[in-house]
Amino acid sequence: MIPNLDGASFRAQAAPDSGDFEMYTQALKGNGVVYGLAASAQVSPNMTVAVTIGRVVVMTSYPEAYEMQAEIAAGNVAIGAAHATLPRFDLIIAQLNISGIGPFRYISGSLAVLPGTPAAEPTFPPLIPPATYEEIVVLASVYVPPGATFIDSPLVVDKRIPLPDNRRRPYLLLCAADPGDAEDIITKMSITHDGIVIVSPNQTSVIDPPACATLFVNSTTKGVILPRMSSAQRLAIEQPLEGLMVYDLTLDKLCIRVSVGGILEWETVNTTTITGEPSASKSASASPSASGSASASPSASASPSS
């Protein structure tokens, strides 16, 4: 939600704004984006921003709490004329009108702009719904430089917080600049209403985790690394419970705490080298494996270790 300094086109874009935290507070309440509503500069940039079709969800609170969703049509949002000497931030929003009472409520919405105030150090405008509208959901911020005559891609920053319609809590967006390739690494986490934690790097679509898991890690390009330590460090773990797993760098083995005859002890997991796949020396690889690729055997029988 907040660009890294390395990735920001303008310094003001990289500074945390109180509006960012207000947006996240709104998401904790239950207001967010179910899908779509991505904002982007026009192919031939002008003073409008294109927004795709999508759906928002809001949690109303009077007189009782109700979750309501609205489909928002795609459209172009006009950005007001730039100030001659001062920059400003505008916010692209979905503005929502709610009518009716209790379960007989109706919701409709449209795209709009909350215009900011030009200033030497601009901040986001207050998240106050326009007249005749009850709720808003922020979609993007637009940095309007002094004298700008068009809005191009670096000026538009995504501010959507995905909030799927099964009442998951909002994603936490964490950004970090990779010094190796100067690209931002975006990790997304969410917690479902029934407590399942989802970790999904570079994931933009809604994920339905398996009900049998409390932690669901989703990726097709990366794996999961368990804590890695020496045998001495493993044996120093206080009161290790049954099922605890670590990778022992001294043994070069995956170790699991198991109960054998009612007695807890450490055992190493049997592995089998996958033939026909590239291998690498331990010193040249980030993997703790000495050579080759190994997969854990589904068998629980493993050789005991102290």
Briefly summarize what is shown.
This protein is mainly beta. 7% of the residues lie in helices and 37% in strands.
What does this structure look like?
By secondary structure, this protein is mainly beta. The protein contains three helices and 21 strands. A five-stranded mixed beta sheet has the order 15-16-17-18-21. It has a four-stranded antiparallel beta sheet with strand order 8-7-9-10, with no helix packed on it. It has a four-stranded mixed beta sheet with strand order 11-12-13-14, with no helix packed on it. Residues 167-187 and 284-304 have low confidence and may be disordered. The longest helix is centred in the first third of the chain and has 12 residues, at 18-29.
Task: Identify the notable features of this structure and list them briefly.
mainly beta, 7% helix, four-stranded antiparallel β-sheet, 21 strands, elongated
Write the layout of secondary structure elements.
Layout: H1 11-14, H2 18-29, E1 32-36, E2 39-41, E3 48-51, E4 54-60, E5 66-72, E6 75-78, E7 88-99, E8 106-114, E9 135-144, E10 156-158, E11 172-177, E12 184-191, E13 197-199, E14 215-217, E15 228-229, H3 231-235, E16 245-248, E17 253-260, E18 263-268, E19 271-273, E20 294-296, E21 303-305
Parallel strand pairs: 13-14, 15-16
Antiparallel strand pairs: 1-4, 2-3, 3-6, 4-5, 7-8, 7-9, 9-10, 11-12, 12-13, 16-17, 17-18, 18-21, 19-20
